[in-house]
Automatic annotation (TrEMBL):
It comes from the Bacteria. The keyword Secreted does not apply. This is Recombinase family protein. Keywords: Coiled coil. Residues 152-288 form the Recombinase domain. InterPro entries: DNA_bind_recomb_sf, DNA_bind_recombinase_dom, Resolv_N, Resolvase-like_N_sf, SSR_resolvase, Zn_ribbon_recom_dom. Residues 381-408 form a coiled coil. CDD domains: Ser_Recombinase. Residues 4-89 form the Resolvase/invertase-type recombinase catalytic domain. PANTHER family: DNA RECOMBINASE-RELATED (PTHR30461:SF23), DNA-INVERTASE FROM LAMBDOID PROPHAGE (PTHR30461).
Length: 543
C-alpha cells in the first residue's frame, strides 16, 4: 500500500525569493516519486523565521493534520525548514514520531534522534552566528556615523545612500520647540497638550503624550533623551530577545558600558548646551519622584478605566471642599479622549463598595460561598487526616521499637552502649511526632446555614468596607492587595439620565472559583450599582 505524504516548505524573510516555496515543492515531489509516496497535502510558511514555531500558520495546520491522521510521511527539503531551534525541532520530531509519522529530508534522509539533535544544534548555531554578524555589521555602520536601522522622528533616509539620513525641517522645528519649552520650565504633559492642540504630527502618526517626550531613563528613550538631536549617534541601548513561551520579541536595556556612539554634527538639530540643560532639569525633577513612593495611594489606584475610551484614570487635584477628583489619563496626558469627564473619587469608591456589598449579601451568593468553603475545608481536612494517620503510625512504630530495646536491656541482650543511645534517639523522635500531632488542626466540621448567619455576614461586610477604605488611605499595602483580589477593573461612565450620577462596571478576578452566573444583580444601573460581568466572590483560597 502506497504511503501518503505531506510536504512542508518555508522561507525566512521578505528579502528572499517567493519562488523558494515552489522550488522546495518541486524538489520534494521528485523525492516522493522516487520513493513511491503519494503526496496528499502541502503546507507552507512564507517570510517566516525558523527561530520559533509561533506565527507559522502552515506548521500549525500541518500538526493538526498529523493528529487527524491525514498523512504517513512528512517531506521537507532540509530539517532546518521545520525549525532552526533545537528545542522546537526535537519537539516536532517527538510528536510526529508518537503519531507514527516519518520525517524525510531530501538532502539528509530519514530523520532519527541523532540527526535531529545534530541538525537542531547546527541550525541554532547558524542562526545565532548570523545574529552576531548582523550586529557586528550594524556596529561598523554606527562607527561610520550611519543609521543601523529604524526610523527617528526628525529625520528621513537619503534615497540611494543606505544608512544616511537627512533632517526633516518641519519635524526639527517641533523638536526645538519641545526642548526650549522644557528648559523654560514647562512639563512634558503641558507640552504634549499644546502640540496636539496645534495638530503637529507625532512620531508614528499617534497623539503626543508625556511619555513620548519624557521617555524611559533606564532605556534612554524619548525625545528629551535622544542624543542624536545634539549631534551624537548612540546605538545598542537595548537588545531584542524572543520569549520562548509566546514567540514575541521584547526589548531589554543594555548596560551603558555596552552602548556605542559616534559624533554626527551634520545631524544636530539643537545645540549641545540646550541638550545638557534639558538633562540637568530632567535629573533635578527625578529627585522629587522616587520609585519608593509608587504604592497604591487610594482604594482603586490602578483599577479605574474610562468608560469612553478605555484608558486608565488618575487623580486630578481637589475641589474647594478638598474632595479628590479623577479624570481620564488619555485626556490628561494627550487631550485625546473624545468625551473627558471629571468624577469625584469618593463617589466611585462608595459605589464600588456598595456594589460589592449588594452582590455578596444575596442568599444565593452566600450559599455558593459556603458550598465552596465546605469543599475547600474537606480538601484541607483530607490532607490533614492523611498526615495525622501517617504520624500516628510512625509514633506507634517508634513505641514498639523503644519497648523492644528496653526489653533487650532488661534481659541482658546486646551491648548497652549501643542500645542505650539508640533508645534515647527514638524517644526524642517520638516526642517530636507527638508534639506535632498535638498541634494538628481539628477534624472537619460542617458549617450550617442558620437564620442569623446572613445578618452576621452583612455586619462583617460593612466592617470589611470600612477597614479596606481606611487601610488603603493610610498606606496599608495588604488592604490594597485585598481589594485587588476582589476587583480587576472599575470602568466609570457618566449616567446620561441623571446629571452628576455615576455609572460603573466592575469586573472581578475570582470568577474562576464559582464561575459566571451566580450573581442576581448583574445588571447595569445608576447611583452606585454595578455590573458583575465576570462574577465577584469572597476569596476562599487557603481559608
Amino acid at each position: 500500500m502506497t504511503k501518503r505524504a505531506a510536504i512542508y516548505a518555508r522561507f525566512s524573510t521578505d528579502l528572499q525569493n517567493e519562488r523558494s516555496v515552489e522550488d522546495q515543492f518541486v524538489l520534494c515531489r521528485k523525492h516522493a516519486e522516487q520513493h513511491q509516496l503519494t503526496v496528499v497535502r502541502t503546507f507552507e510558511d512564507r517570510a517566516r523565521s525558523g527561530a520559533s514555531i509561533f506565527g507559522r500558520d502552515g506548521l500549525l495546520q500541518l500538526m493538526d493534520a498529523a493528529r487527524d491522521g491525514s498523512f504517513d510521511v512528512l517531506i521537507v527539503e532540509a530539517l532546518d525548514r521545520l525549525s532552526r531551534d533545537m528545542e522546537d525541532l526535537a519537539g516536532l520530531h517527538k510528536r510526529l514520531s508518537f503519531l507514527n509519522i516519518e520525517i524525510r529530508a531530501v538532502h539528509e534522509g530519514v530523520a532519527n534522534t541523532v540527526l535531529v539533535g545534530l541538525r537542531g544544534l547546527v541550525g541554532q548555531l547558524y542562526r545565532e552566528d548570523n545574529a552576531h554578524k548582523i550586529r557586528r555589521g550594524q556596529a561598523g555602520r554606527v562607527g561610520s556615523g550611519l543609521n543601523a536601522g529604524g526610523l527617528t522622528f526628525g529625520y528621513a533616509p537619503v534615497p540611494g545612500e543606505p544608512g544616511k539620513r537627512k533632517i526633516v525641517e518641519e519635524e526639527a522645528q517641533t523638536i526645538r520647540r519641545i526642548f526650549e519649552e522644557y528648559v523654560a520650565g514647562r512639563t512634558p504633559r503641558d507640552i504634549a497638550h499644546d502640540l496636539n492642540r496645534d495638530r503637529l504630527p507625532a512620531p508614528r502618526g499617534s497623539k503626543w503624550n508625556a511619555s513620548t517626550i519624557n521617555g524611559n531613563v533606564q532605556r534612554g528613550t524619548g525625545i528629551l533623551q535622544n542624543e542624536l538631536y545634539a549631534g551624537r549617534l548612540v546605538w545598542n541601548k537595548v537588545r531584542m530577545v524572543k520569549n520562548p513561551d509566546t514567540g514575541r520579541r521584547i526589548s531589554r536595556p543594555n548596560p551603558k558600558e555596552e552602548w556605542q556612539s559616534a559624533d554626527v554634527p551634520d545631524l544636530a538639530i539643537i545645540s549641545t548646551e540646550l541638550f545638557e540643560q534639558a538633562q540637568a532639569r530632567k535629573k533635578e525633577r527625578g529627585k522629587d519622584q522616587p520609585h519608593l513612593q509608587r504604592r497604591p495611594r487610594h482604594m482603586l489606584s490602578g483599577l479605574l478605566r474610562c468608560g469612553v475610551c478605555g484608558s486608565g484614570m488618575s487623580t486630578k487635584g481637589r475641589d474647594k471642599s478638598d474632595r479628590i477628583r479623577i479624570r481620564c489619563s488619555a485626556s490628561t496626558e494627550s487631550n485625546s479622549c473624545p468625551d473627558p469627564r471629571t468624577f469625584y473619587l469618593d463617589t466611585v469608591e462608595s459605589a464600588v463598595l456598595a456594589g460589592l456589598s449588594s452582590e455578596m449579601k444575596q442568599p444565593k451568593v452566600l450559599a455558593e460561598y459556603v458550598k465552596t468553603y465546605h469543599e475547600e475545608r474537606k480538601r484541607l481536612s483530607a490532607e490533614a487526616d492523611a498526615k495525622r494517620s501517617r504520624l500516628e503510625r510512625r509514633a506507634a512504630q517508634l513505641k514498639r521499637e523503644i519497648d523492644r530495646l528496653v526489653d533487650h536491656l532488661a534481659k541482658g541482650i546486646g551491648d548497652p552502649n549501643v542500645i542505650g543511645p539508640r533508645s534515647t534517639e527514638l524517644h526524642y523522635e517520638r516526642e517530636d511526632i507527638l508534639a506535632e500531632l498535638a498541634e494538628a488542626p481539628p477534624a472537619y466540621e460542617v458549617v450550617s446555614l442558620h437564620p442569623g448567619i446572613l445578618s452576621r455576614y452583612e455586619q462583617q461586610l460593612e466592617t470589611l468596607q470600612k477597614a479596606l477604605a481606611e487601610g488603603i488611605r493610610s498606606g496599608d499595602s495588604e488592604c490594597a492587595e485585598a481589594m485587588r483580589d476582589l476587583v480587576e477593573t472599575v470602568t466609570v461612565h457618566r449616567d446620561p439620565s441623571a446629571p452628576g450620577a455615576v455609572e460603573i462596571e466592575v469586573k472581578g478576578r475570582l470568577s474562576a472559583l464559582l464561575g459566571e452566573g451566580h450573581y442576581p444583580n448583574g445588571v447595569k444601573a445608576s447611583g452606585g450599582s454595578m455590573v458583575a460581568e465576570e462574577g465577584l466572590e469572597p476569596p476562599t483560597r487557603g481559608l
